[in-house]
Amino acid sequence: QVQLVQSGGGSVQAGGSLRLSCAVFGYTYSSYCMAWFRQAPGKEREGVATIDSDGSTSYADSVKGRFTISQDKTKNTLYLQMNSLKPEDIAMYYCARAHFRGYCYLAHQGFGYWGQGTQVTVSS
Do 95 and 22 meet the contact criterion of CB atoms below 8 Å apart? Predict the structure, then answer.
């Protein structure tokens, strides 16, 4: 059974940093694209970053240069390092695994397994 268990997040002042973690269970970790999404109140879920099975990454324009997605295959864990946080980054953040091998886009429809979510709050 595939499970994604998130940790990290919390509250920080603008300009600060947070790191999110997502531990993965139930399958061979590096076989699928992994991603981070976020959803702010009243808004649609949006893709933040992806990391494919070969380690290639992609980012939403809004977080490029500030956020870094990474993975530790020995720990079956996905990370999102968030620096220079802004109030507009406030959202619930979710890690996700693609439904199928070969899919790796910043569109949530292609992801079938989700973490429980963790809140990120940034005060100005």
Answer: yes
Predicted local confidence at residue 19, as pLDDT = 98
**Distance between CA atoms of residues 66 and 96, nearest Å:** 20
- Residues sharing a CB contact under 8 Å with residue 99, sequence separation 6 or more, in sequence order: 110, 111, 112, 113
**What are 102's two structure tokens?**
């070969």
pLDDT tens-digit series, residues 10-58? 999 999 999 999 999 988 777 899 999 999 999 999 999 999 989 999 9
| Distance separating alpha carbons of residues 80 and 102, to the nearest angstrom | 21
DSSP-assigned states of every residue in 43-75: S--EEEEEE-TTS-EEE-TTTTTTEEEEEETTT
